[in-house]
Amino acid sequence: MSVNVPKVFISYSHDTQAHKKWVLELAQRLRNSGVDAILDQFRVGLGDDLGGFMEKSVAESDRIIMVCTDNYVTKANSGLGGVGYEKMIMTAEYMTNIDSNKVIPLIRQNGTHNVPTFLKTRLHINFSREDEYELQFDNLLREIHQAPLFKEPKIGNNPFESVTARPLESVADKKTDLLKEWVKLYNQGVDFFIFEDLHQMLGCSKIFAEIYINELLTDNLIKRNREYITNYGCMLNVFRLTDKVKLYAIEQGWIKA
């Protein structure tokens, strides 16, 4: 089995045959969805050491699903039976790792959302409504596989901060790439560019090219003049680097002495 397969132990109480069947089907579906779901119905037979199975399962699992029914919560809080023993093991682990999110409380009871006392402050998942089963199963599976539906986007650049005021690592954008290439070509003898040249170097739409160039002008990193260009035989707007960006290029190590 791949080391990337998450291992999940399912802790529950044997309330009724219907409830045991529901938990069994949950475990089977998790296994069919790439999760190594550990369940006593799969791995414990007559004569086996139930306590050893519980301790090993809790210790080796990446996550633990506690299927909470009113009977389960009562047994966990009172320390009764196998549920109480599992709760004791899990509580001990929480004491050594207070920030652990290893246990996932799964609400199965109707009408109440009770969980064992030591999990009162933990976020739970609600499987009490059959008509929401598919939605909640998807949420559970995403949590186990660490594949959230909405991923936190990266933080962009401050739009009110000059490009030269930011560290190099934070300005890996179109403008910085353009300036680096511009400085390189300047050292090779290219004195100026026209808009079409810059547009091509940026590799973006004309509208964005205009925006980027105007921002560089505003930050005094480039300058623009209206000049007669012999090669073109007409007056054109030409763009050149300012002394400000040349000094910045030296500070950032874009060029060597």
Overview of this protein structure:
The chain is of the alpha/beta class and about 260 residues long. Helices cover about 45% and strands about 15% of the residues. The protein contains ten helices and eight strands. The strands form two sheets. Strands 2-1-3-4-5 form a five-stranded parallel β-sheet, sandwiched between helices. The longest helix is centred in the first third of the chain and has 16 residues. About 10% of the residues have low confidence.
Task: Give a concise summary.
With 257 residues, the protein is α/β, with parallel strands linked by helices. It is built from 10 helices and 8 strands.
What does the secondary structure layout of this molecule look like, with pairings?
Layout: E1 7-11, H1 17-32, E2 36-38, H2 40-43, H3 50-60, E3 63-68, H4 70-78, H5 81-96, E4 103-107, E5 125-126, H6 133-145, H7 174-187, E6 193-194, H8 195-202, H9 206-218, E7 222-229, E8 234-241, H10 243-251
Parallel strand pairs: 1-2, 1-3, 3-4, 4-5
Antiparallel strand pairs: 6-8, 7-8
What is the overall pLDDT average?
Answer: 80
Low-confidence stretches: 80-96, 167-172
Helix content: 40-55%
Largest sheet: 5 strands, parallel
Radius of gyration: 31 Å
Structural class by sheet pairing and helices:
alpha/beta
Number of strands: 8
Count of helices? 10
Please give the alpha-carbon distance between the first and last residues.
Answer: 56 Å
Please tag this protein with its features.
257 residues, alpha/beta, 5-stranded parallel β-sheet, 3-stranded antiparallel β-sheet, 10 helices, 15% strand, rod-shaped
